[in-house]
Design a protein that fits this description.
The protein is mainly alpha-helical and 137 residues long. It has a single domain, classed as Arc Repressor Mutant, subunit A, CATH 1.10.10.10. Helices cover 54% and strands 6% of the residues. It has seven helices and two strands; from the N terminus they run αααββαααα. Strands 1-2 form a two-stranded antiparallel sheet. A hairpin with a 5-residue loop joins β1 (55-58) and β2 (64-67). The radius of gyration is 17 Å and the shape is elongated.
């Protein structure tokens, strides 16, 4: 299993916004340069992150994007969930009707437990904790 570039790049963008949290809106072009990610790709990530109430946009000459909440209130799990539409390892976990065997499947419980463990771990890491890890705190 791999996280998509959406989650990896989206998390990097969110980390960048957290680093500049107290400085007001940040232009997407600045993030793109610092993170070495194309502006067009970052623009695609803005919509689901806004829908997930993780970032907000400000229009105008001093506009840009900023975190919708403080960095300590946004987890990596929330970012991944917004960008991936969930983090279940198998579709039948969130939607048991997707598979006719889900009620008797011996492996479904394994995928459910593994998904929960991954989600719990990603939710335990906030953007502020990421910044502390980066500084070696």
């Amino acid at each position: 299993m791999r996280l998509s570039t959406r989650s990896r790049y989206g998390t990097r963008m969110m980390q960048d916004l957290a680093q500049h949290y107290d400085k007001g809106p940040v232009r997407i072009g600045e993030i793109a340069k610092r993170q070495d990610i194309s502006v067009k790709y970052l623009e695609q990530l803005i919509i689901p992150l806004k829908q997930g109430n993780l970032i907000r946009s400000v229009r105008g000459p001093k506009g840009g994007h900023m975190l919708a909440r403080p960095p300590e209130e946004i987890s990596v799990g929330q970012i991944v969930k917004a960008l991936e539409g969930g983090i279940e390892l198998a579709g039948c976990i969130e939607n048991p009707g997707e598979c006719t065997r889900s009620s008797s499947c011996l492996t479904r419980g394994i995928w459910e437990d593994a998904s929960k463990s991954m989600y719990d771990k990603l939710n335990s890491i906030t953007l502020s904790k990421m910044l502390e890890m980066e500084k070696g705190v």
